Amino acid sequence: MNTYKNLRNLLTIVLMSVSMLVVAQTKPNVVILATGGTIAGAAASGTQSGYTSGQVTIDAMVNAVPGITNLATIKGEQISNVGSQDMSFEIMLKLAKRINELAAAKACQGVVITHGTDTMEETAYFLNLVVKTDMPVVLVGSMRPSTAVSADGPLNLYNAVAVAADPNAKGRGVLLVMNDWIHSAQTLTKVSTTAVQTFMSPIRGLIGTSAYGTNDFYRYPDQKFGTKSEFSVDGATKLPRVDIIYADVDMPADLIDASVERGAKGIVIAGVGNGNMPKVALDACARASKKGVVVVRSTRVATGTVGRNVECNDDELGLVASFNLNPQKSRVLLSVALLKPRKLDEVQKIFMNY
Length: 354
Ligand code: GLU
What we know:
CATH superfamily of the largest domain: L-asparaginase, N-terminal domain
CATH topology of the largest domain: Rossmann fold
Bound molecules: glutamic acid
CATH class of the largest domain: Alpha Beta
Structural class: alpha/beta
């Protein structure tokens, strides 16, 4: 009888160990690529507004988040450690290549990128165009440094890992998770210099929400991205120069001419209203276009699209309308598109599809 009982206990222990092993093995692998930003920032006290970005290592960030390792097996890599005002196309190319390598090696089920919020929309949108994977790639940051009272970084990081580890996040393009909201790289934009709720997705709205690691997805982005994108940065070491010029009342047009003289391959106008600008500036844009510089009319207005041939004749002037993209994302798209020579109508189609 005792032998039977012992055998039964042994069998139970073996079965429990096997199931624990299976659970441990099925925990998704998530790689965190750290670039710096406020999420890794530190100040001298918890209520000080001044601080230095990019002071804290990945390990310290992960250790500050209770329970995060229950969501996934996490590995970290430091790509850079800068405030995102110092983000560069060089670092973005490094990020894209690393993600493509991880995807090709099937090394993980998802990637999280810690990043400053100032230029997060540029990096997110760039990666959305050039990473060749459907696995979740999730950017995350914080508005308060790690040393602040009520730092927002730890919960943002927890939610970002939960989204990166979630099979339902696959095929939705590059995402950004902050303050419980999941945004598409295509739509998100920073709207407040200091508020915790700084990212919004005007017009198209959120991809979903993530609350304490529980995700709720509402939609798939409708533009092209990831494996459906025609763009590649394989072999690219730098991007062509594209300048942004801000339009306003009585603006001088010579900045547009100067940009052409300085060798810009593309110019994005942060236009007034529906991508408009004074006549002198339109004339300068037409001159630039005749010289082979691709000029895109975007807008300084926070929401709404810039349409073709609305208040100016794009066909005659040789201009491109940005449709959904704000100036900073237009610059990213144009820089990537101009990695190879393209006709104006081809660039216009690109702006309508991405
Ligand atoms: N300038 C910093 C950065 O973008 C602060 C913004 C932030 O991370 O929230 O890295």
